[in-house]
Amino acid sequence: MRARGPPARYPPGATDHDQARLGTAGARHAAGARTSRVPLAWEDGGVRNLAALPKAHVHVHFTGSLSVPSLVDMARSAGVRLPENLTDNVAMQVPADQRGWFRFQRAYDAARAVVRSEEAMRRIVREAARADRAEGSRRLEIQIDPTSYAPYVGGITPALEIVLDEAKAATRETGVEVGVIVAASRTRHPLDARTLARLAARYAGDAPGDVVGFGLSNDERRGRTAEFEAAFRIARRAGLRSVPHGGELLGPEHLREVITHLNPDRLGHGVRAAEDRDLVAEIVERGIALEVCPASNVSLGVFRENEDVPLRTLFDAGALIALGADDPLLFLARLNDQYDIARRQGFSDSELAELARRSIRASFASASSKRAWLAEVDAWLEADN
């Protein structure tokens, strides 16, 4: 379901660029209707330019990284008709229940159905890196389950190799380091996860264009976490980091299961750890990073408003937060929109710089790259405005 409302009305001071990004959904937000669209440049009371803030982007899904115009173009090329809710430029809004997840998954599946060629897959990686470059990202770790794309390119191995090859090319073109995370799905049998873990292990490495981590995504309420433990052991033996989803749709009890069985280096989301102070303390002590995606949390009904996402609670507790866009295609909010949300929650520029530092530290980039980017964050903060 998409939020509907009155005709679009733009406030005084909105530039053409603002209006283009804002779309109908954002205009309704300005008019007072509830939507998950975050405020844009003309509403920005901050000081420094967030697009110039160096950062890392470690939580974004493959097809979900697309822009709406690119999806429409790819659908036209593939001869696929898209549902209106993928082209109406209105941010997704569903309840945090099984019905809401079904609506979300159906929309994602419809988008994924247009990805039917090697060139389409390469385009996704290339455009994701370019979008990140425009937002000041120095590191992109894009997540993919190659199973869904395999029928169109000759199998899961060619599907993954295409993504890895283009990740190398995109790194050279944009200067954004692109790593890849292979993710299994909770909705499939745990044996499928082991197959993907073995595939990911063959391409494990630390350089751009390598597989840097192994994840577990889809509906947190599906599957038994313990049954995926063997797949994560395979991945870890190959040197891959553990990055399962958890703590968005379900709370602390589920997070403890994920931590116990999958030994995560990062948690995809993990935002609901804030409901349990002791759990947050454990996560901080163990050095587990949290890939927090505020716009996604609101679009999927986990929190009612952007202001309700407990960024401050997690930040002040010392959590290693890495803000991420998750699926900007559906939520119409990219990486810097997540930082905008933090700014509107009262984060100062110094605190936004610290969020960027934490995202860099949470990434799987080399120590030398991290040192360089952290110095650039300091320069952003010290520069005259």
UniProtKB/TrEMBL annotation:
Cofactor(s) needed by this chain: Zn(2+)
Domain Adenosine deaminase: 54-380
Annotated region (Disordered), positions in chain: 1-34
UniProt KW Oxidoreductase keyword: no
Low complexity composition-biased segments: 1-14, 21-34
One Pfam family per UniProt: A_deaminase
Name used for this protein in its record: Adenosine deaminase
Lineage of the species this protein comes from: Bacteria, Bacillati, Actinomycetota, Actinomycetes, Actinomycetales
GO term, biological process aspect, one: purine ribonucleoside monophosphate biosynthetic process
Organism: Actinotignum schaalii FB123-CNA-2
GO molecular function: deaminase activity; hydrolase activity, acting on carbon-nitrogen (but not peptide) bonds, in cyclic amidines; metal ion binding
Gene3D superfamilies, alphabetized: Metal-dependent hydrolases
Keywords associated with the record: Hydrolase, Metal-binding, Zinc
Cleavable signal peptide: none
Family annotation (InterPro entries): A/AMP_deam_AS, A_deaminase_dom, Ado/ade_deaminase, Metal_Hydrolase
Similarity comment: family membership: Belongs to the metallo-dependent hydrolases superfamily. Adenosine and AMP deaminases family.
